[in-house]
Design brief:
- By secondary structure, the chain is an alpha/beta fold.
- It has 3 domains: about 10-255, Rossmann fold (3-Layer(aba) Sandwich), CATH 3.40.50.12780; about 260-325 and about 325-440, Rossmann fold (3-Layer(aba) Sandwich); about 445-559, GMP Synthetase, Chain A, domain 3 (2-Layer Sandwich).
- About 40% of the residues lie in helices and about 20% in strands.
- It has an 8-stranded mixed beta sheet, sandwiched between helices. Strands 15, 16, 18, 19 and 20 form a 5-stranded antiparallel beta sheet that branches.
- The radius of gyration is 24 Å and the shape is globular.
- The N and C termini lie far apart (about 75 Å).
Amino acid sequence: MSSSTATFLENIFLRLEKAGDAPVLQEIHGGEATTASGRDLLVRIAQARAFLRECGLKKGDRCALLAPNSIRWAAADLALMAEGVIVVPLYARQAAQELSVMVRDSGAARIFCGSAELRDAIRSALGAAPPVSLFDEIFAARGGAQRSAPEAKLRPPAATDALTIIYTSGTSGEPKGVVLSAGNVDFMLARTTARLDQLMHGHAGPERVFHYLPFNFAASWISLLSCLSRNSVVALSTDLTKLADEMRAAAPHYFLNVPALLERVRGKIEENIRSKGGWIAGIYAKAKRGFLRDGGKRLGLSERAALAIARALIFPAVRKGLGPNLKALICGSAPLAVETQNFFMMLGIPVLQAYGLTETTAICTLDDPANVEPGFVGPAIPGIEMKLGENQEILVRGPNLFSGYWKRPEETAKALRDGWFHTGDQGEVNENGRWKITGRIKNLIILNSGHNIAPEPLEEELEKRLPGAQVMLVGNGRSYLAALIAGANSELNEAKAGAALEAMNEQLPHYRKIRAFHLASEAFTMESGMLTANGKLRREAVAVHFQTQIEQLYRKREA
């Protein structure tokens, strides 16, 4: 069967067979890499498939997968799909009590765990848990799965077969299980690999990819499957505290990011340049001032000269620190500040933005590497339709749409209407067909004056003025907006927050001005229940936690 007519799973297995003893996956541990070749990965998959058959798991059963990213995670995922077992990927850092809700909801017949610690935590939370199997047991050598013995013939899933149930982050209420099919993934991988072909055009040899985002998130999983379908070597991060060192060791051509990391990388680069002082800091400041103003479209003579000097004498060292092979950064999960996108483009590193939800098989739009417009998340990928509905809500239609929420027909009917998925995101589209995400419908703040305000742009602007801070606006049903400002930045204080708000308010109409704020000493965290597993605000939880402070903000001004 040719690769053009094969399913994504057949393509991955064919790619692993073709790779043979060449590396396809790596785990970076303290600067050292543990490598798995195509043959190694096939052996691990065979071991896991044999274990599944011994356990009696069959097509349509659900199996939870609870472990950090690893070579064995990828092998377990591929084995489960090969056997027709529906994968329920879970976030290893999420609270066990929250994970237990998902396990029960999915009806998982078994849990695959990466460590005894995770096993004990989930068992404690579940009580009468389904059987839990450790990776050490799953990947033990067994008959029929030795290195020299080929695995039984792959039975590729039908397009309508459910592959996975990925639970949404649950910014309000309980998380919902999104059911994605083989057809969804077949469609999406054809599009992602086409974009990667554009990016890597003319490159000979294996592509080097760095990966740190957890595989339980849809975009991260699609990225992994895309790379396994290609001539790639994927280096997996194993220590989030050593990302910079691991990234340099991986020397990637591209990798998937979230805006928060790119903001931190930008901050560290700028801090390093400022610390050098002298002509380096001066040249950089002038080049940055001109380029970040409008993407370098209207540079003055001195700014153009400063940028030329910076690109010749300063930026090459910066790019080398990020990785000598880096062709592009890919960014999703939330809108990236246009200044940060322009910053990396100034360095000569394109940032390709993507937009999508779990329900859309991770992606709806993706930047064209040859035509990036900073501030936008790219055009709809071929085969997907997008339009604006009521309240500027983004509606999506295409083969990427999920089949429904697991055991939630009413929720499915609300989200899928007349063939269109109602994303809940607000947006706009320009004359070139490129999309911008402006907020969430359910997050709209409606003042008692009747003004509707999307909080996200204002929150992002204030966070930009207060580096390291986290911001959440409140004011629904009130006469004005107020802000909760949190963060662990030791330099953040009442005076700085007040000055930033005053400067920001000068540029805003009266109804969008932020007229009061509370400075919290503790950060919003996942552990406190105020952030979701992928770092988004749980607004209702934050509002409940700070209810007293919020009431005081309004009493003070109204008194």
